[in-house]
Amino acid sequence: MKILVCVSKTPDTTSKIAFTDGNTKFDEAGVQWIINPYDEWYSLVRAIELKEANPAATIHLVTVGNADAEPIIRKALALGGDEAIRVNTDNSDAYYIAAQIAEVAKQGGYDLIFTGKETIDYNGSSIGGMVAELVDSPYISLATKFDLNGTTATVVREIDGGEETAEVALPVVVSCQKGMAEQRIPNMRGIMAARTKPLKVVEPIAVDALTSIQSFELPPAKAGVKLVAPDNVAELVRLLHEEAKAI
Amino acid sequence: MSVLIFIDQSEGHVKKSSLEALTYGADVAKQLGTTAEGIVLGTVTEDLAALGKYGVSKIHQVSNAALNNVDAQVYASVISEAATTSGATVIVFSHNQTGKAVAARVAAKLKAGLVAGACALPNTSNGFSVKKTVFSGKAYAHVNILSAVKVISLNPNSYKTVATEGTAVVEALAVTVNEPKVKITAVNKITGEVPLTEADIVVSGGRGLKGPEHWGILLDLAKELGAATACSRPVGDAHWRPHHEHVGQTGVQVAPNLYIAIGISGAIQHLAGVNRSKVIVVINKDPEAPFFKAADYGIVGDAFEVVPQLTAAIQKMKAGA
Ligand SMILES: Cc1cc2nc3c(=O)[nH]c(=O)nc-3n(C[C@H](O)[C@H](O)[C@H](O)COP(=O)(O)OP(=O)(O)OC[C@H]3O[C@@H](n4cnc5c(N)ncnc54)[C@H](O)[C@@H]3O)c2cc1C
Questions:
Q1: CB atoms A132 and B138 under 8 Å
Q2: In the prediction, which pLDDT does A234 show?
Q3: What is the CATH number of the domain that holds B87?
Q4: 3-state secondary structure of A27
Q5: pLDDT tens by residue, B259-314
Q6: Domain annotation covers residue B73
Q7: pLDDT at B321
Q8: Is the residue at B41 inside a domain?
């Protein structure tokens, strides 16, 4: 069995969000980069667990990004996975990225493609669905559980107001979220092994980007908190009702 | 040229987030000087013609019971075919669980640029640019769509539903409905609860509540307000509350009218999921809790004392006292 895990580099969750170049570029100064948490904690770890249960399985990681992404790819390889592929481009259009991953997927003939539920920077939640469409596979989004029985997967996924259990024959594309697995910390052996695991760099295929970011904007700052004494909750209720019109 | 809006339904009822999408799509159509049409899949018990009051002139219906469960692959093929035959150039979804999966597939199928998580009408003065939330609500991006056909998924709770007069023509649409490759074996809907992303009011608890056995005071408040309940990540991790209630950067992102945070410190990762809420109330015994900086109203006090009093005060207000 061959598993492809999509990993993406995102700013650390505590990063200060600021922009440069007339609000057209994310300010990377002082930013720590991490593996997108959904990719790391859920898709990658679940893939590793599947390989632990079936050592014949292979795990490939794919990142669409420039050379700055290599440290997080090594970190991902330290957690597990056999080799990584980096598609060398900076483009941030979801369709462009999905087309690159779909190309890698077609070349590699994977049974299972995992993505995270979304990236914590662009929050599109769209790569998994697009890849599935481009490789003509079924797509299970927002999965919280994934089990394999031969070539049939049983998946639990979040739907509006609840959850759904589904069965699907491989190949399938799955977007992963909380519940799939528990976060792991790479150990020394993993870190050493990751240094020599293959990291292939491929050039992107020619595809049109269908969107481009024109500019960024920060939300207006809050005016400041109005404090109400703890023995005067009626005043809070009045403010919420009359001033904020929220209740 | 027209705008096609996907109307998401659950058990025959149109979702609130779809009414927002309908209003939004109708406004996009007005902007472009064209008409707005809806598409609904599966069996619906509601009066679809009445959805005309949100500004759509026509609703295409594929009332095939096989479409009652969402299969992203089947849905995408039906919606793409409908979009092509109706000549739609803009396709609007809600960025809810269904929309996230289906909009992406439709966009890829039609080679249409996608803005996922839009929060305002497009700016068409110079191209076609749509504002969306990025960095988990910490910022916005204006994204240009470069393709002829455009797909937009609208963040729930970010566009106000407006109902006026009007009825829509409901037309059965003949399209190919493929056999789904995914077999749904069980559906488990939490009934009687307000879906978190659609809720007007969210009452949320953190580690300050000390344990699941203390959630009663929070649930009482939520019940009084008709609110959905949420929690911080450690609370979800410790299984004090179900996973799906975890809000924040790595959980659900919400944007209700009112977010009440009880015993939550307001870590940056928590704020990322809630800072688009219109009004934030923080109840925390620590005056230095970072959450107060992001709040509109606050009480520095013990949740175990303040929350029951708050519930009682709201009850009293409602009773007109
Ligand atoms: C990569 C990453 C991603 C993360 N993603 C998320 C996320 O999505 N969502 C999220 O929530 N967190 C997230 N976190 C965790 C986050 O950093 C915080 O640890 C977490 O939000 C804290 O939860 P809390 O406020 O419930 O608990 P605490 O920080 O322990 O705060 C408890 C608060 O309760 C108050 N309190 C105690 N007793 C009382 C009382 N009797 N009455 C009133 N107040 C009281 C205390 O003063 C304190 O402020 C993430 C962390 C990382 C590293």
A1: no
A2: 96
A3: 3.40.50.620
A4: coil
A5: 999 999 999 999 999 999 999 999 999 999 999 999 999 999 999 999 999 999 99
A6: yes
A7: 58
A8: yes
Please give the CATH topology (third level) of the domain spanning A2-218. Rossmann fold (3.40.50)
- ipTM given for this complex: 0.96
B46 CB less than 6 Å from ligand 1? Answer: no
> Are residues B130 and B13 part of one domain?
yes
- Which residue has the CA at smallest separation from atom 29 of ligand 1? B265
The DSSP 8-state label assigned to residue A40 in this structure reads: I
Quote the ligand 1 centre to B205 CA distance (angstroms). Answer: 9
So where are chain A's domains?
2-218
Q: What angle do CA B134, B135, B136 make, to 5 degrees?
A: 90
Residue B155: which domain range? 2-172
> Residue A145 pLDDT more than 90?
yes
Q: Is position B297 within any domain?
A: yes
Q: Which one has a higher pLDDT value, B188 or A46?
A: A46
Same domain for B126 and B209?
no
Residue A172 has pLDDT above 90, yes or no: yes
Burial class of A167 by CB neighbour count within 10 A (0 to 12, 13 to 18, 19+)? middle
**Mean pLDDT score of chain A, rounded to an integer?**
96
Q: At which residue do the structure tokens 């928590």 appear?
A: B270
CA A76/CA B152 separation, integer angstroms? 32
Q: Looking at B134, B156, B172, which one is the last position of a domain? A: B172
User: What confidence score (pLDDT) does residue B154 get?
Assistant: 98
Strand bridging mode A211-217 / B139-145: antiparallel
Q: What's the confidence (pLDDT) of residue A114?
A: 98
How far is A216 from B140, CA to CA, in rounded Å?
6
Residue type (1 letter), B81: E
Domain CATH code at residue B220: 3.40.50.1220
Using the atom order of ligand 1, give the atom closest to the CA of residue B302.
42
Q: What is the DSSP letter of A37?
A: H
Which chain B residues contact residue A13 at CB under 8 A?
A: 249-250, 268-269, 272
Same domain, residue pair B76 and B136: yes
User: Count of domains in chain B?
Assistant: 2
Q: Binning pLDDT at 50, 70 and 90, where does residue B139 land?
A: very high
Give dist(CA B126, CA B188) in Å, integer: 46
Q: Please give, one letter per residue, the 3-state secondary structure of chain B.
A: CEEEEEECEECCEECHHHHHHHHHHHHHHHHHCCEEEEEEECCCCCCHHHHHHHCCCEEEEECCHHHCCCCHHHHHHHHHHHHHHHCEEEEEEECCHHHHHHHHHHHHHHCCEEEEEECCCCECCCCCEEEEEEHHHCEEEEEEECCCCEEEEECCCCCCCCCCCCCCEEEECCCCCCCCCEEEEEEEECCCCCCHHHCCEEEEECHHHCCHHHCHHHHHHHHHHCCEEEECHHHHHCCCCCHHHEECCCCECCCCCEEEEECCCCCHHHHHHHCCCCEEEEEECCCCCHHHHHCCEEEECCHHHHHHHHHHHHHHHHCCC
CB-based contact, B160 to chain A, within 8 Å: no
- Quick check: B238 contacting A, CB < 8 Å? no
* Residue B195 reports pLDDT greater than 90: no
